[in-house]
Design goal:
The protein is of the alpha/beta class. The chain is globular and about 45 Å long. The chain has one domain: Rossmann fold (3-Layer(aba) Sandwich).
Length: 201
């Protein structure tokens, strides 16, 4: 039995923060692989994706192309919605019956977990790996009243704090500012070639 770590997100665009999270989680959890799972249209960010799925998939593939331990999964994109994490993880558990599936999130997502659809089902289906977020300090025990048993389902993974986000980077790109070193060169070349993120946000 191995461990499959799942990193979901819009990846709009993918950046070094995603790669660093994946790298440190892979090592800490002794994973077999990390799945980068682009979201179709996440309910909590409905209508907020800036680029369509084809561009986000292409950029994510380029971001992880150098790393054989990372893989892209189209599971969320290729199934009908609504796209709730509880459903996605249940399908992944069925796809990887010989592995433990661990869902990777930041501390801000852990804090917001009670507002996710069927959060209780999610924590019964998989364990949650949590990496720190800038200016967010949150303990799973705080959620015990609303999500009983969550403390036993959370694994804290140390990772360097990278104070950036896809939203911030898209805004910098739109304003013509540098994002060098924050987005992999291959992804930057793709963005330039397809003239992405040029409209004001």
């Amino acid at each position: 039995m191995g461990t499959v770590v799942v990193l979901g997100g819009t990846f709009d665009p993918p950046h070094i923060g995603h790669l660093i999270m994946a790298e440190y989680a892979y090592e800490a959890l002794q994973a077999r692989t990390v799945l980068f799972l682009p979201a179709a249209d996440p309910p909590h960010k409905h209508g907020e994706t800036r680029m369509d799925a084809a561009h986000r998939v292409a950029m994510t593939e380029l971001a992880i192309a150098h790393e054989p331990r990372f893989q892209l999964s189209r599971l969320d994109l290729d199934r009908p919605g609504p796209h709730y994490t509880a459903d996605t993880v249940r399908l992944l558990v069925e796809l990887y019956p010989d592995d433990e599936v661990i869902f990777l999130v930041g501390e801000d997502s852990l804090r917001d977990l009670p507002f996710w659809q069927r959060a209780n089902e999610l924590i019964r289906t998989c364990r949650i790996a949590v990496v720190p977020r800038h200016e967010v300090r949150f303990d799973a025990e705080t959620l015990e009243d609303v999500l009983p048993g969550i403390s036993e389902r959370v694994i804290h993974v140390w990772s360097p704090l990278i104070e950036t986000s896809s939203t911030d980077l898209a805004a910098r790109l739109s304003a013509g500012k540098s994002v060098r070193y924050l987005i992999p060169d291959a992804v930057l070349a793709y963005i330039a070639r397809h003239e992405l993120y040029r409209k004001p946000l």
